[in-house]
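Whiteboard transcription, Tuesday session. T.W. wrote the structure tokens on the left side:
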């Protein structure tokens, strides 16, 4: 136990780091984003052409002109691959390292965000160390991220709603009435005395979890700095405009404000109305006309992500804030044509035969920026049709190991006990991606 405590102490170094994960729920098409295939046959390549970037030899889909202007500030990984063909399985592979290709109703291993928070959290701070701005939690009825056998108090502080809505606010933070703060502290003191009576029968550590939740809640309720960190109204109008006066843009702006305030782990999901009729990136033909959907949503995506990356560099945050843009998988390179299940934004009326792309975990792309890494390049490659990785294959374990390394966590050396007390390595497989090491 002393050895374990010593190992954890190494992990808890307070060198400043942060990770912002932009999660594309449903799986974005790599061919219509970061890995266009203009020379592929027509039944694969789609209707959009490529656009050149500031980086010689790097091309993006023409739907990403703002990305193209700042391509020297990110690196593309075009060779991610795994075996999880369903949304739950793909998400669990990417977020928890679970290698099982079968879907599960909930995770059996903790997600990387909760694990990192459990090892890096500092309860003396006024802000949670892990915030989900439209958090990564579910896919339909499946839970795709969670604490599993880690103390649930290390899960995300969830911010829901549309930050672009003029009426938006994060509730229960930064009480402004000094009298209310005093009364709250008196009530908490009384409750703690009563809670001591039940500790003797607490065999499963649940009271400790509740104490951790209460510590976070009290800190948020009494901290003016917490209210300020979440207040987008403190940003100049021009900055809010650059990110985009829409939900995804303002989610990214809030993420930037939170890392500046000291939050280390932030997830933000791009889904909802900006995606089209079904509210996600799952562009089967039954859901969306894939090309209409991409034409509709990509301007919002392009603006939000490029503004976030550009802003981090402009503010000098790029050396310690790592940004990763990914979903659970890509889309089938071969275009399918079947009947729509219903009309709406980016979808023809029910029965209309329209193009779509299905699930594709065999090859997909990610964007990496900041974190002190070497940018302005491409890692890996897929074949001429975008179907399979032919150069520098990477796995979810490699993805997770790279994030852990950035946070200063020795994932191959630290174990966490499961519900039975059996130690489980944080990451049993995978290695940091060398091309994404810190640039010196």
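and on the right, the sequence the group agreed on:
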């Amino acid at each position: 136990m002393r050895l374990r405590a010593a190992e954890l102490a190494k992990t808890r170094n307070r060198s400043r780091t942060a990770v912002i994960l932009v999660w594309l729920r449903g799986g974005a098409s790599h061919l219509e984003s970061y890995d266009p295939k203009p020379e592929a046959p027509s039944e694969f390549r789609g209707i959009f052409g490529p656009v050149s970037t500031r980086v010689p030899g790097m091309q993006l889909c023409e739907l990403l002109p703002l990305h193209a202007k700042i391509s020297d500030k990110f690196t593309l990984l075009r060779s991610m691959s795994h075996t999880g063909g369903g949304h739950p399985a793909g998400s669990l592979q990417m977020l928890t390292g679970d290698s099982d290709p079968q879907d599960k109703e909930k995770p059996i291993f903790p997600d990387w965000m909760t694990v990192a928070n459990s090892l890096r959290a500092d309860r003396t701070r006024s802000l949670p160390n892990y915030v989900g701005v439209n958090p990564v939690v579910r896919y339909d009825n499946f839970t795709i991220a969670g604490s599993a056998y880690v103390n649930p108090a290390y899960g995300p502080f969830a911010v829901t709603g549309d930050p672009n809505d003029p009426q938006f606010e994060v509730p229960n933070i930064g009480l402004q009435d000094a009298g209310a703060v005093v009364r709250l502290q008196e009530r908490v003191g009384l409750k703690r005395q009563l809670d001591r009576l039940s500790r003797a029968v607490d065999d499963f550590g649940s009271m400790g979890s509740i104490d951790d939740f209460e510590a976070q809640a009290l800190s948020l309720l009494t901290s003016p700095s917490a209210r300020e960190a979440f207040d987008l109204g403190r940003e100049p109008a021009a900055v809010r405009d650059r990110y985009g006066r829409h939900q995804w843009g303002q989610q990214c702006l809030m993420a930037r404000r939170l890392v500046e305030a000291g939050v280390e782990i932030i997830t933000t999901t791009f889904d909802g109305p900006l995606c089209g009729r079904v509210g996600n990136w799952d562009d089967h033909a039954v859901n969306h006309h894939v090309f209409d959907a991409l034409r509709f949503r990509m301007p919002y995506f392009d603006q939000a992500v490029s503004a976030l990356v550009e802003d981090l560099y402009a503010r000098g945050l790029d050396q310690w804030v790592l940004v990763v843009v990914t979903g659970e998988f890509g889309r089938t390179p071969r275009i399918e044509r079947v009947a729509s299940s219903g009309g709406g934004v980016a979808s023809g009326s029910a029965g209309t035969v329209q193009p779509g792309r299905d699930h594709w975990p065999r090859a997909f792309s990610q964007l990496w920026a900041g974190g002190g890494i070497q940018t302005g390049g491409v890692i890996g490659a897929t074949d001429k049709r975008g179907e399979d990785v032919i150069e520098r294959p990477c796995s979810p374990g490699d993805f997770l190991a790279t994030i852990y390394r950035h946070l200063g966590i020795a994932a191959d050396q630290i174990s966490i006990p499961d519900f039975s007390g059996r130690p489980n390595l944080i990451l049993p497989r995978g290695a940091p991606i060398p091309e994404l090491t810190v640039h010196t």
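Someone added at the bottom: Residues 175-222 form one domain.
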